[in-house]
């Protein structure tokens, strides 16, 4: 309905601006012509987008319903943890402070070396140049790699905290008494999993550096290389880009598994990969639909900004051309929405991992009740493919056949914040991962 309203308003504005243009007769200013042409383009794009959106909703209404339910659950989780919404602000401040520090160190490196004086024989001025040593050139590379690694590390810390908070909320049965665990999970990250997050961000850095080198080579060799070399460089860059996107997606899910199980990065990445593979169809469908719904939300924010701008600027009689400022405001609103909607995106991904683990370990019986709310229970059987269910059943049967005697948790052990050696018994006592010890063998 909102998209339809924006489309109708754009066409209405175009018609009104065209009537105003016709009132000038033959002496129409160029700014008015460009303004009318811009609104015509906006209206056509909005119409095409509305038609495509309507077709997608009609074809994928069931999967859209599940994605909407995940969004609903994500909204409930964020209502219980409202401070998660300002995580992009703290992340931005951390990145800004680190970048300022990085620039200061880079400035010192640029003037580090042996000073050499040069006298200008014409006007008698003296110049000083700093001759770099071989060791300083290595520090330049070290500093650049550090920029990429630490930036990815800060973003990974945000992903871990969000995933840990969402897992806390999902696996709490009495959600009415739930309190925001942001500070506790930050302490949990610092105490146990700084190394896991650093290792995950370092893997991303190892992919980013060759990709940056390839892009640098493309810019330097532009216009001089052969068609074959250009094609090979583009293919390599595309492959590294795809690998980077996959590793980021896997790392984000691995951080959620780390928060749930308390294990190291490699074990959690393997578990996350197995979850994604065993639920490949569901993950692919929900991620596509969920990302599309979030994209609609971002466009909604940009459209609302444009709508407000049209209503405000139309009231100004002396203003004739405002299409470009309106577009700039909408783009800026879209970028801000991307930063804050990333919290929703990470929350949905974490909920999906928790949902898959919940359906894998539990069966809804009195002995193994689901942790999920009733809104998600109606989708348990609808989106599980036969192949995924067979894999899960086979893994559960093998684990139950080889599982040792049940281990009871120590009294007072907190599943989320127990020490690493205490996490496994605590989880087994909660009947979340009865086959965990068998997989470690």
Strands side by side in the biggest sheet = 1-2
CA gyration radius, whole angstroms:
28 Å
> Secondary-structure element sequence?
HHHHEEHHHHHHHHHHH
How far apart are the first and last residues' alpha carbons, in Å? 55 Å
Please, how many helices?
Answer: 15
The percentage helix is: over 70%
Strand tally is: 2
Instruction: Indicate the low-confidence ranges by residue numbers.
Output: 383-394, 401-441
Q: How big a fraction of the residues is strand?
A: under 5%
Shape: globular
Q: What profile does the largest beta sheet have? A: 2 strands, antiparallel
Name the structural class.
mainly alpha
- If you average the pLDDT, what whole number results? 76
Oligomeric state:
single chain
Structure characterization notes:
The protein has a two-stranded antiparallel ribbon with strand order 1-2. It is built from 15 helices and 2 strands. It is mainly alpha-helical and 441 residues long. It is globular.
Properties at a glance:
441 residues, single chain, mainly alpha
Question: How does the SSE layout of this entry go?
Answer:
Blueprint lengths: L1 H21 L7 H30 L1 H20 L6 H24 L3 E6 L6 E6 L2 H37 L11 H11 L1 H27 L6 H35 L3 H14 L1 H35 L8 H39 L12 H4 L8 H17 L17 H10 L6 H5 L1
Short structural description:
The protein has 441 residues and is mainly alpha-helical. The protein is built from 15 helices and two strands.
